[in-house]
Amino acid sequence: MTVFARFRALPDKDKAALIRKLVQNGTPDFDYFYLIGLSTLMATLGLLLDSGSIVIGSMLIAPLMYPILGVSMGLVMMGDNVTLLTRAVNTLVKSLGAGLILSVLAAFFFGDETMYMSAEVLSRTEPTYHHLLVAIVAGAAVAYMLAKPEWGDALPGVAIAVALIPPLATIGIGIAAVSAFIIKGATMILLLNLIGIIVTATIIFLLMNLSEKEHIAKSTVKKEDQKIEEENKVIAEVAEKISVEYKSDQVIREDIKTQ
User: Fold this and answer.
1) What is the domain count for the chain?
2) Is residue 157 part of a domain?
3) 115: closest CA among 160, 70, 174, 65?
4) In a domain, 251, yes or no
5) What are residue 100's phi and psi, to 5 degrees?
6) Any idea what DSSP says for residue 11?
7) Which domain holds residue 206?
8) How far apart are alpha carbons 244 and 250 in whole angstroms?
């Protein structure tokens, strides 16, 4: 009981910081999908080139962990309102879909039959219960560490251990190679990782009693939505300015030619 009490006894400010971090880093904005795209492309190329170091690099820049933990937070805070859960699930599904499409295109255009069967690819086609155990341990670690700011430096290590993006990229390679063996094995590993992390993180968040901080999550979501709206307005203004400058430049060139 003493161990369980330690989770509940975490300072409110740390719990609040955890919730804000999950919402902010799991917001489906341009920055988020930009990193998802880069990490997926990097993982796909690393798998094709049979380079473990490149694959590891792709794990470090992938923000996929946040919407996954957001699903756990949404389950804990579900109650009569499933808004937070729906938001996290939508972000996760879009992330997986976008990453899968990019990996298929990268594998199709830059890979060949020999690359499709590299050691890095084949190592991610044989799911075992060990993958689930790793996901459980990693989920327990990251869910707790996010509530302990002093342990932030250890997060990259957890990201490498879970390895969410490489199996996704492997599925894309399997589709490009039209290989049911690769697709099936990589899909099972990805699902084991997702299930292990979500279930474990949900238990940790329940022990922390995060449900009582639902108002913080909702207020952070509103702030993030407002931030996206403001960014979109600025982007629209800049795009309009660029368009006007381009048209003005075209008119000047046409005037020069007519003279």
Assistant:
1) 1
2) yes
3) 174
4) no
5) -65, -45
6) -
7) 2-213
8) 10
CATH of the domain at 64: 1.20.1080
Tens digits of residue pLDDT in 39-89: 999 999 999 999 988 998 888 888 888 899 999 999 999 876 788 899 999
CB 99 within 8 A of CB 40: yes
Burial of residue 30 (number of CB atoms within 10 Å: 0-12, 13-18, 19+): exposed
Could you tell me the pLDDT band of residue 157, with boundaries at 50, 70 and 90? low
Overall pTM surpassing 0.85 (yes/no)? yes
| Residue 222 forms part of a structural domain | no
- The length of the chain in residues reads 259
State pLDDT tens for residues 170-220: 999 999 999 999 999 999 999 999 999 999 999 999 999 888 888 898 899
As given in the structure block, the two tokens for residue 127 are 């799911």
- Output the six-digit token pair for 35: 């990193």
Residue 18: Cβ within 10 Å count: 25
Between the two ends of the chain, the Cα-to-Cα distance in Å is 88
- Which of 112, 127, 132 shows the shortest CA–CA distance to 184? 127
Dmax (CA) for the chain in angstroms is 88
